Amino acid sequence: MIPMVDLKTQYESLKEDIDASVLDVLANTQFILGPNVQALEAEVAAYLGAPHAVTCASGTDALHLALRAAGIGPGDEVITSAFTFIATAEAIAYVGATPVFVDIDPRSFNLDPDLTEAAITPKTRAIMPVHLFGQPADMPRFSAMCQAHDLLLIEDCAQSFGARIGEQQTGSIGDMGCFSFFPSKNLGCYGDGGLVTARDEAQAALLKNLRNHGSDVRYHHDRIGYNSRLDEMQAAILRVKLRHIDAFNAGRRRAAGDYRQALKDVPDLHIPHEDGIGEHVYHQYTLLSPRRDDIMKALQAAQIACAIYYPIPLHQQKAFTDWAEPVTLPHTEAVAAQCLSLPMYPELPEEAIAQIADVIRTSLR
Ligand SMILES: *Cc1c(COP(=O)(O)O)cnc(C)c1O
After folding, report:
1. Which of 110, 180, 281 to mutate to test the pocket of ligand 1 (most atoms within 8 A of CB)?
2. Which residue of 25, 73, 195, 318 has the smallest Cβ count within 10 Å?
């Protein structure tokens, strides 16, 4: 059996440090907003080159808190992709704003900048690109667009921790960057967790206030906020793993290189396209094929995991029928009908990749 992700191998390699950190928290008994959260926020801000970093309870909350802190609400439009996890657009709906779904570039799977610019209206307040599957979106274009139209730029970095565009890290380029520490993400904890980066101090202070019931001073509440804090155990685990994130991402890029070598000549198959805007960190390794179902059947028969991310784009989800205008997104729909993600994790062995490639090659013969 080859799984989609293997969290055990990574834990075994870091067990001593992680176990010690968790035991420290248990001995300390300061479980909420303690020293590990504070240290992690400083360490992540330094790693990303972001002025401020504020942790919270999940990636979904990171997006929600960012939109709340930006003052986005009813009557506002936020442009984003429909080819992403639902949380990206759920957060827009949480604050009462309208998600405006724009089509993707069918090669990178990321939001198309030209179509995005064409979708800007007087109601548009923000653009929210997703660095999908770990490939940076076209931030130079989106930054220029947001400057020209006076819009906020909020990055969904849930799949792109450690991905760079030149010297800049995703999450440090827009006004805010939203990260998820869900266990299977490139930097994952052992539960739920998230983080928002912010450019200015006032915005960071507002995020900290919002995540803690609208409160800076205990039992003094400035606004209606949330209970959305990262706990100390998760923060302690993440501090250990953060020291290895570049090695983890290098492992993913190595695996992607092995896949590329093994699959590049297979007919009826598109392997992931690196568009060169930034460095792809391969949260997922996602193929396109008109014969996806044949490939899936063969992989399943060979005990190799695979998954469709994402089978139903957000503009076609029942949940959004009342929230967004009906649209047709040809590239998004075509990609959703043909995409297939293969096992991907830093420690994925080269022999496993060779075996996966053999099964795919044979299935398409
Ligand atoms: C995982 C993910 C989220 C949500 O993160 P959670 O921590 O699961 O709440 C948001 N956007 C994208 C693109 C994701 O992949």
Report:
1. 180
2. 318
- List residues bridging with 219 in a β-sheet: none
Collapsing DSSP to helix, strand or coil, 318 comes out as helix
Ligand 1: which atom is nearest the Cα of residue 63? 10
| Count of residues in the chain | 365
pLDDT at 63: 98
Specify the 3-state DSSP secondary structure of 35.
Answer: helix
- Eight-class DSSP state of 137: P
Q: What is the position in ligand 1's atom list of the atom closest to the CA of 132?
A: 13
Confidence of residue 325 (pLDDT cuts 50, 70, 90): confident
Q: Find out whether 66 and 88 touch, Cβ atoms under 8 Å.
A: no
- Give the position, in ligand 1's atom list, of the atom nearest the Cα of 182: 7
By most ligand atoms within 8 Å of CB, the mutation choice from 4, 5, 55, 60 for ligand 1 is 60
pLDDT of residue 50: 98
* CA 181 to ligand 1 centroid distance, Å: 8
Q: For the chain, what percent of residues have pLDDT higher than 70?
A: 100
> Structural domain boundaries of the chain?
7-242, 245-363
Report whether residue 180 contacts ligand 1, using a CB cutoff of 6 Å: yes
- With tokens 């400057």, the residue in question is 147
Cis-peptide, bond into residue 345, ω within 30° of zero: no
Q: What Å distances lie between residue 74 and 67, 92, 118, 166, 264, CA to CA?
A: 12, 10, 22, 36, 47
Which tens digits make up the pLDDT trace of 229-286?
A: 999 999 999 999 999 999 999 999 999 999 999 999 999 999 999 999 999 999 999 9
Residue owning the nearest CA to atom 14 of ligand 1: 158
Active site residue 185: yes
Contact 67, 126 (CB under 8 A): yes
Ligand 1 within 6 A of CB of 228: no
Pocket flag, ligand 1, residue 83 (CB < 6 Å): no
Confirm if 124 and 349 have CB atoms less than 8 A apart: no
Which residue out of 8, 185, 208, 318 is catalytically annotated? Answer: 185
CATH of 7-242, one of 3.40.640.10, 3.90.950.10, 2.60.40.1400, 3.30.450.20: 3.40.640.10
